[in-house]
Amino acid sequence: MIICEDLLFSRGAILEKYDAGDSVFKEGTAAKYYFQIRHGTVKMNTFLEDGKEFVHGLPFDGHCIGESYLFTSHHYAINAIAVTNCEIIKISKTKFLQLLLEKPELMLEINKYTADRLHFRYMISSFLAISDPIVKLTKLFDHLKKYFGFEEAYSFLIPYTRQQIATLTGLRVETVIRYVKKMQELKLVKIESTKIYY
């Protein structure tokens, strides 16, 4: 988690529940709240003119979303949509910025998180130039495993479904299924039921 939940609640944050498919915020609206996911997965996306969807990320438990917009006058250029049932901590922009003024060390945590997410987005963008599905999947799995501090083989449970992996890598879900099986044959991953261990 980026900011201690108790601290947020002590400053007036509330806990909101979202059903899968609910909008947390929409492209073109003003940023009025700091959002931190207590439980669930949220899809950060943009719908293109041809109706296609571009997914920027799938943050989950402990991540914050849209926080960079609290420091600008820009409206959201993305949507945030609950993928699963979610519990999200929400505090007003005014109270959040006041908290940062009182506890400037929190700004370092926010900056570190934002920098990590930018790194992830740059890496995901590079997938457009990679044609080999195993290279794409390995890069994604390497990043996630490193981010969460795992090192041993098969020690990290990939936190995404095959559909979500497809969305992040720009592959078709059938391709992800096929190449994850191939990665298992190459002993790069271990599959137990529907779970992928890397």
From TrEMBL:
Q: Which ranges carry the Cyclic nucleotide-binding domain?
A: 18-117
What Pfam families is this protein classified in? cNMP_binding, HTH_Crp_2
Top-rank taxon, per record: Bacteria
User: What keywords sit in the KW lines?
Assistant: DNA-binding, Transcription, Transcription regulation
Residues annotated as domain HTH crp-type: 131-198
Please state what the protein is called: CRP-like cAMP-binding protein
